[in-house]
């Protein structure tokens, strides 16, 4: 039995005018709740410290950089690390990272239970577009504001097992889970900010979004015999709705804990990392069953060539 008591700390909406300090206060409340529930690891959403600013078109770099953290921890986030250390809780959360070299990433980190950062991940699959698109009800300018991640999908020895991270759109791509699965990942931590509607006016709405949200995380968990912890920033940010649907999925692909609101909400589950073992040793024993001689196209080709014929 390798138990990790996981808290999924879903956040409600962050408004454009909300200060970092105010948002961190809400995160501290969830961290205290997690402590009362005996959590040893707490996962917060993507871009937890700000509103989902890629919905806004900005041109001045100074205006863009206001949404980024130049240091982690920094003055606004130090209280998070201090409280996590006090409670002996490891934390993971997403934020916009401005590196010392001036590079911009959509990043998440993982600490140990003493508040030390032990892993960093930079979002690889950036959805949306890079120029203003008048056809959209709202923008989704992650390709404008962030570079694609440069750290791969690292899996870290922590919490008595193998822990990996990804962010939001990454969860829709099976490669994300398999690259970590091939490193023996036993728990994948991810945050997301997912608009409830497609910005290009197609009929897709919250029900579809919530269905796909569960579908991809349950599939990724099952197909790699890993726990998946998916945590939303949810609710209406400056008039733009984001789905909730935070959940903890076990290595058999079953949802064992799920949020029911679009507000600040903690979900908790006692996760036993040994539950990964059966799948990894049988159905998804990669070394026994995979036939990589037939998979080359997955990394040698980006898109469909010549119309797929
Ligand atoms: N958000 C969305 C996500 O992948 C999206 C963007 C939504 C893409 C629905 C495709 C379909 O959940 C982020 N931040 O990636």
Brief sketch in words of this structure:
By secondary structure, the protein is α/β, with parallel strands linked by helices.
Structure characterization notes:
With 309 residues, the protein is α/β, with parallel strands linked by helices. It has one domain (3-300): Nitrilase/N-carbamoyl-D-aminoacid amidohydrolase (4-Layer Sandwich), CATH 3.60.110.10. The chain has 9 helices and 14 strands. The chain has helices at 20-36, 61-65, 78-87, 142-145, 174-181, 206-223, 277-281, 286-289, 297-300; strands at 3-10, 41-43, 90-98, 104-111, 117-122, 155-158, 161-167, 187-192, 227-232, 235-237, 240-242, 247-249, 255-258, 265-272. The strands form 3 sheets. A 6-stranded mixed beta sheet has the order 5-4-3-2-1-14, covered by helices on one side. The chain is globular and about 55 Å long. The relative contact order is 0.16. D-[(amino)carbonyl]phenylalanine (ING) binds next to loops. D-[(amino)carbonyl]phenylalanine binds at residues 127, 168-169, 172, 192-194.
The first-level CATH class is given as Alpha Beta
Segments where pLDDT lies below 50 for 5+ residues? none
Euclidean distance between termini CA atoms: 50 Å
* Residue-averaged pLDDT: 97
Strand % is: 25-35%
H-E string: EHEHHEEEHEEHEHEEEEEEHHH
Instruction: Sketch the major β-sheet.
Output: 6 strands, mixed
Bound molecules: D-[(amino)carbonyl]phenylalanine
By CATH, the topology is: Nitrilase/N-carbamoyl-D-aminoacid amidohydrolase
Q: Quickly give the CATH architecture.
A: 4-Layer Sandwich
Number of domains: 1
């Amino acid at each position: 039995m390798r138990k990790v008591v996981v808290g999924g700390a879903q956040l409600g909406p962050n408004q454009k005018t909300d200060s970092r300090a105010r948002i961190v206060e809400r995160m501290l409340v969830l961290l205290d709740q997690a402590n009362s529930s005996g959590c040893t690891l707490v996962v917060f959403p993507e871009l937890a410290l700000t509103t989902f600013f890629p919905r806004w078109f900005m041109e001045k770099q100074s205006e863009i950089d206001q949404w980024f953290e130049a240091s982690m921890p920094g003055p606004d986030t130090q209280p998070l690390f201090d409280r996590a250390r006090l409670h002996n809780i490891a934390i993971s959360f997403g934020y916009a990272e401005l590196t010392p070299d001036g590079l911009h990433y959509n990043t998440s980190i993982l600490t140990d239970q003493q508040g030390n950062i032990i892993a960093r991940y930079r979002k690889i699959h950036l959805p949306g577009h890079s120029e203003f698109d008048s056809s959209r009800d709202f923008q989704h300018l992650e390709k404008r504001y962030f570079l694609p991640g440069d750290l791969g999908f690292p899996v870290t020895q922590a919490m008595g097992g193998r822990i990996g991270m990804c962010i939001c759109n990454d969860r829709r791509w099976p490669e994300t889970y398999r690259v970590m699965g091939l490193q023996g990942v036993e728990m994948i931590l991810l945050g997301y900010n997912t608009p409830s509607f497609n910005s290009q006016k197609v009929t897709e709405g919250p029900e579809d979004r919530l269905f796909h949200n569960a579908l991809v995380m349950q599939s990724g968990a099952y197909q790699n015999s890993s726990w998946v912890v998916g945590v939303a920033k949810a609710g209406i940010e400056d008039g733009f709705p984001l789905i909730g649907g935070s959940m903890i999925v076990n290595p058999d692909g079953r949802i064992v804990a799920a949020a029911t609101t679009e507000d600040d909400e903690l979900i908790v589950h006692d996760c036993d990392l040994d539950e990964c073992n059966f799948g990894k040793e049988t159905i998804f024993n990669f070394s026994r069953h995979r036939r990589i001689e037939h998979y080359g196209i997955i990394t040698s080709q980006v898109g469909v060539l010549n119309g797929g014929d």
